[in-house]
Amino acid sequence: MGCILKGGGGLYSRLAVGAVLLAAGSGSRMGHRPKSLLELGGVPLIRRQIIALSGAGVDELVVVLGHHAQRIEQAVQEFPVTVVHNPQPDAGQVSSLRLGLQALSSKIDAVLVALADQPLIHAQDITDLIGAYKKRAAPAQVVQPTVDGQPGNPVMFSAAVREQILNGDARIGCRQWQAAHPDEVQHWATPNQRYRIDVDTPEDIEALAARTGHQLRWPADLVRSA
Question: Which of 144, 156, 171, 182 has the largest count of CB atoms under 10 Å?
Fold first, then answer.
C-alpha cells in the first residue's frame, strides 16, 4: 500500500484542532479599551487572529469575551465561531480559558490557545506551531514556542491535557499545568519574533511601530476613550 500524505502534505495523521481565542480582558492599561479592536491596516486584531487560525485549518474556534463583549462581538459576528461570554472576566485568564475549553467539542485531538492582542501572528505561524506539535517528542503533551529563551504564544496541547485541566481545580489553567508537569512540556525554539509580540500598553504600540513599522490605530469610536 502506498504512503498517503495527510494533514496538508505532511507524513502525520490529520489532527482535529480546536482553538480558544481569549479576548475577555478590560484593557485597563489601554484606558479600559478592548485591545483586540486595535486595527492594523484597518483590520481589528481579533479579526486578524480569526483569519490566521482559519487559514491554518483550525477545525473549531471558540472566542471568549468578557469586558467590552458587545462591542467586540460586532467585529466577529460574521465568522463561523462559537462565542462564549465569561460572566466574571475579572476572575482572571484561567476562568476564560476553562470556559473556552468547555465549549470545544469532544472530537478535538489538540487545543491551540491564542491571544487576541498579538498583532503580527498570521496563518503560517499557526501552521508552523501545529507542525511542531505533530513532531513533538514523547512524552510531551504541550508545545510552547520560545524565542531567545523566552516563552511565546500561541500554545498548543493535547486533548488529554484539556481534560486534566477541566477535571482539576478551578484555579488550574495551561500555565499552571505546565508548571506541574515540566517533563511533558516541549519548548519549541524558534527565531520567529511574532510569537513574542503582544500589546498591553500605549508604550507597546509605540515600540511596535518603532521596531517594525507597523502602526496600530484605534477605531474611530474608541479614539476619545483614552
Answer: 156
Of the candidates 214, 180, 201, 211, which has an alpha carbon nearest to the alpha carbon of residue 42?
Answer: 214
| CA–CA distance, 3 with 101 (Å, rounded to integer) | 34
Give the Cα separation of 111 and 26 in Å (integer).
25
The tens-digit pLDDT sequence of the chain (226 residues) is: 333 333 444 555 689 999 999 999 999 999 999 999 999 999 999 999 999 999 999 999 999 999 999 999 999 999 999 999 999 999 989 999 999 999 999 999 999 999 999 999 999 999 999 999 999 999 999 999 999 999 999 999 999 999 999 999 988 899 999 999 999 999 999 999 999 999 999 999 999 999 999 999 999 999 964 4
The answer to whether the bond into 89 is cis (omega within 30° of 0) is no
Chain centroid to Cα 222, Å, comes to 24
Q: What is the dihedral of CA 163, 165, 166, 170, to 10 degrees?
A: 170
Alpha helices in the chain (DSSP H): 45-55, 69-76, 93-103, 123-134, 159-167, 174-180, 202-212
pTM, to two decimals: 0.92
- Rounded Cα gap, residues 112 and 89, in angstroms: 20
